[in-house]
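Q: What would this chain look like folded?
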Amino acid sequence: MHGAVASHTSTSRMGRVLARVEQLPDDLRALFHATIVRGEPKAAACVSAQIDGEAFDQRYARLLRELKRDPSRVVLPQVPRLRFPFPPKKL
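A: My prediction, written as structure tokens:
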């Protein structure tokens, strides 16, 4: 069986996203699993959640805002950054 090979970076990013999803309210978590994980179209997700299209759009926008708000996705550099990356030129 041939499958996609995930790098360490993409695996850790996906792990952080899934950890963040588990902290979301039930309605947003269900929307994430229906649309992004299972790939259901908008109409099917609306029927399963018993909402209209406008409510779906609002929840989806809220879901994306919540995922972007996650502070754990920021990776700080391991070494201090130099102010001047190259030595100054002698005049």
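The radius of gyration is 20 Å.
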